[in-house]
Structures are given as C-alpha cells and as structure tokens.
Amino acid sequence: DIVMTQSPDSLAVSLGERATINCKSSQSVLYSSNNKNYLAWYQQKPGQPPKLLIYWAATRESGVPDRFSGSGSGTDFTLTISSLQAEDVALYYCQQYFGFPLTFGGGTKVEIK
Amino acid sequence: QIQLVQSGPEVKKPGTSVKVSCKASGFTFSSSAVQWVRQTRGQRLEWIGSIVVGSENTNYAQKFQERVTLSRDMSTTTAYMEVSSLRSEDTAVYYCAADLGRETADYWGQGTLVTVSS
Fold it and tell me: Are strands B10-12 and B112-116 parallel, antiparallel or unpaired?
C-alpha cells in the first residue's frame, strides 16, 4: 500500500497569512504515460463530509477559491492557502489515487492564530 | 444539482451485518463509480472500496475484502455497501462518494453513522 504522510498535524495561522501543508507518499504517484500526479486534496469542515479541492496535484476543482493551490510531483506535495480566511478553518487531507487501495494522509488541522 | 443521499444512522450488535444505501441524483449514474470511505472518531479517513456502476467491477481494500460487499441498483440509481461480522472497531461514519471519471471522490454523501455495541 502507498503510505501518505502529512505534516504538520496542526497549524495555527493569522488571518491573511499563508498556510502550508505538506504531503509525502511512500512511492511515486506520477504516472509516466500521461505525466499526471494522482494526488488529491480534500477539505473537511466540522460536521460535514470532505470536499474535493485539488486533483492531479495542482488542478483546482470548479468553484474553489484561487487562494488554494497545490504543487509538487512524484512523492512530495504541498497545499498552500495564500491568505487564510476564517472559513478555511478545517481539516485537510491528501489522497493518492495512483493505485488500489486508495490511501489518505492523516490530516492537518488548520486553525486561526 | 449533484446529490448523494445516504440512509440513516444504525446501531448494531457485534457479529451482525449492516447495509448502507446511497441514492444518487443529478449526474449520469451509469457512467460513474462510487467509492466508500469511513471515518473513525480519530478523524482518519479509510478507503473501503469502489464499484464501477456500469460494469459492476469492484475493488476492495484488503482489510475489508472478506466482510464488505458493494453493489448497485441502476433502476433506482442507488449504491449499497454491506458490512458483515461487525465489531466495535467498525464504529465509524461511512461515506459514499461519486467518482465522475477522474478517480477522485468528487461529490460526497452526508455520511451514515454506524455504531457497533453490545
């Protein structure tokens, strides 16, 4: 199984400041035939199901604010919130969909400092 | 709009089974896949398996292979997950999610709390 490791477990950021979440996979999730990274990011607010934010490591889902961006390739990935807003307080998860079983990172809790 | 509506909470005794439904609307069900994910109290997300609606092809995480059955009814655009031989560690919120062709969980149901307790 591909193990996904997120860091940090939690972070507190001031409103308007940048938040950065890291995700590392135990093996590459880059598919060479199409040059796509099979890595997604989800946001989960309290009492709600997860919501897809980013897929193919860097493509924002429709309707997701452009302050959210994804980057990285191979085994190392980053989710950046460029200017944290109050409504961004949530848990964030990375997930690989390169191979079965699909696996998630342990989650990162983002709070306001 | 795209919706996935899951069945209500369940309380089950150890050793019994539970069947959770996931009613889909707002997209072409037959061209999708449905993933099932659970979330325990510790907040960790765990992928259970997926079913390709059109072909009924299924994939399961190995730890669930023996105890989980995924199915679908195209006439009612509903997907199902049955878990047998329940144990207390299966207490969790179970989610279905529609995969509209990118192999990601694009839209999620509201979740179904399954509590296993004697």
Answer: parallel
* Model confidence pLDDT, tens digit, residues B10-21: 999 999 999 999
Closest partner CB to B43 (pick from A42, A95, A107): A107
**Closest residue on chain B to A49 (Cα):** B110
Most trustworthy range by pLDDT among A36-45, B38-47, B101-110: A36-45
Residue A49 in contact with partner chain B when CB distance is under 8 A:
yes
Q: Give the dihedral sign, CA B30/A60/B61/B82.
A: negative
State pLDDT tens for residues B34-50.
999 999 987 899 999 99
Q: Is B73 on the interface with A (CB under 8 A)?
A: no
The pairing of beta strand A108-112 with beta strand A10-13: parallel
The values of phi and psi at residue A16, to 5°, are: 85, -10
Instruction: Please name the amino acid found at residue A64.
Output: V
